[in-house]
Structures are given as structure tokens and as C-alpha cells.
Design goal:
alpha/beta, 178 residues, single chain, two-stranded antiparallel ribbon
Length: 178
């Protein structure tokens, strides 16, 4: 059975990026001396499924940060060519979340990291997220791209753990209650 997992940072007011996609407010608070658990989180994931916005941000980084295969779910990018440097690392698809997970199950993928605000929202609306690690950064940015959006019904969460860091970040892990 395939499971899906989120690891994401937000501002105190609930945004993952500024309206233009800028995440400088997050990057400037990254303390390399603090272990926020990403390495442990990603260690057992077979694949990353990300949205177009996340992909377009990450592709601008100096170095490709992932060592797992990436499936980018995007109607806009589906059918376009993957950049030469990312061939074999990235593929594009226009599948809906449920259909993408069914395809990945057929490919023997078991644990998926879901990344990107709108994509996480889609997976949540479809009841396809198992757990989330949400790191809250002590900053208010006023407006931007929210992590959470409209839902057809409440989604109950069970707090698994919560911890704070000397930098002021607070990380909470939630399991979605069926």
C-alpha cells in the first residue's frame, strides 16, 4: 500500500511563500547547525511528487537538491521536455493525485513525499495524505501562498509530536485521522 507524507515549512500566518513564490524569508532563517529532521524524513521515501510551483522554484537553485526520483504533477508542464540535466531524475505528468498514486503503486512505489502548497491541498481534499511534518517559522509575512486552502469537510489531525528549536522554529508532526 502506498503512503503519502508532507514535510513543509510555513510562516506563523500560514504561508509557504510570498505571492511571487519568493522563499527568502525561509532561507535566511535556515540554521545549518540545527537538524530539523529532513534527512530522517526522506530516508525511507521512494519518490517525491511535487507541484509545478515547487519544481519551478527548485530548478532555479544552484544545485539540484534531491536524490530521489521526482514526479511533477502539472497540466502546464505535461508533454514538455525535461531539461537535459534532469533527465532520469524528473518526469512530468498531468494525472490527478489519485491516478498518480495508482500509477506509482503499479511501479512498486510505497512511500511518497508530497511537496508543494497547491498539490498538498489537492491531496488533502482527496483524503490522500497520511501524515504531515509542519515547521512553523517565527515570522509574519502578511500575504502569500497558503499551505492550506478550501476543504469540502473538516480534516481531523492527531498530534504525534512537537518540538522547538533554539532558532525559534516549531515543528509539529500530525497524523491524519481517517
Amino acid at each position: 500500500m502506498i503512503t503519502t507524507h508532507v514535510f513543509i515549512a510555513i510562516s506563523v500566518d500560514g504561508f509557504i511563500a510570498r505571492p511571487d513564490g519568493d522563499i527568502g524569508w525561509l532561507l535566511q532563517r535556515d540554521d545549518p547547525t540545527e537538524d530539523h529532521g529532513y534527512s530522517d524524513f526522506i530516508a525511507d521515501k521512494d519518490m517525491i511528487v511535487m507541484g509545478r510551483g515547487s519544481y519551478e522554484k527548485v530548478v532555479t537553485f544552484d544545485k539540484w537538491p534531491y536524490d530521489r526520483p521526482i514526479l511533477v504533477l502539472s497540466k502546464q508542464l505535461a508533454g514538455t521536455l525535461v531539461p537535459e540535466a534532469l533527465k532520469g531524475k524528473v518526469r512530468f505528468s498531468n494525472l490527478a493525485p489519485k491516478d498518480a498514486l495508482e500509477e506509482l503503486t503499479r511501479q512498486n512505489v510505497h512511500r511518497v513525499y508530497v511537496d508543494g502548497g497547491r498539490l498538498v491541498q489537492s491531496f488533502l481534499r482527496d483524503g490522500l495524505i497520511n501524515d504531515m511534518v509542519v515547521t512553523t517559522v517565527p515570522v509574519l509575512i502578511g500575504s502569500g501562498r497558503p499551505l492550506f486552502g478550501p476543504l469540502p469537510q473538516d480534516i481531523d489531525l492527531a498530534l504525534v509530536s512537537s518540538r522547538s528549536f533554539p532558532s525559534g522554529l516549531v515543528q509539529s508532526t500530525y497524523r491524519l485521522v481517517p
